[in-house]
């Protein structure tokens, strides 16, 4: 059974990546399709925990991809790989600009269900 100390250690090593993406005008469907092609491959990368695609609710072209990794080293190893560059190339064809932010996860609150 995990202890509070175990949870703190695990949280301190997780990495959250926030990838802000401005999609080319009219490129929304192409961007969605490209994301669909890469998401299952990314899920198999060692250390990858989850990723999410966020679509703008305000009609803007600003999308977000967030991902969570067991530790920063897992993400950086994948990001530097040739596999990563090849995998994301089709996605970049639909992108005007990007910004990538990285954060160590230090606290996490989960909502109650049921």
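Sequence proposed for the structure above (114 residues):
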């Amino acid at each position: 059974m995990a202890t509070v100390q175990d949870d703190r250690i695990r949280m301190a090593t997780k990495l959250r990546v926030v990838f802000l993406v401005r999609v080319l005008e009219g490129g929304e469907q192409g961007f969605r399709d490209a994301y669909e092609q890469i998401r299952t491959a990314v899920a198999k990368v060692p250390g990858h925990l989850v990723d999410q695609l966020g679509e703008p609710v305000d009609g803007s072209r600003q999308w977000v991809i967030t991902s969570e990794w067991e530790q920063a080293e897992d993400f950086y190893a994948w990001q530097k790989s040739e596999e990563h560059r090849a995998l994301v190339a089709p996605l970049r064809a639909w992108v005007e600009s990007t910004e990538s932010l990285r954060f160590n996860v230090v606290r996490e609150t989960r909502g109650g269900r049921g």
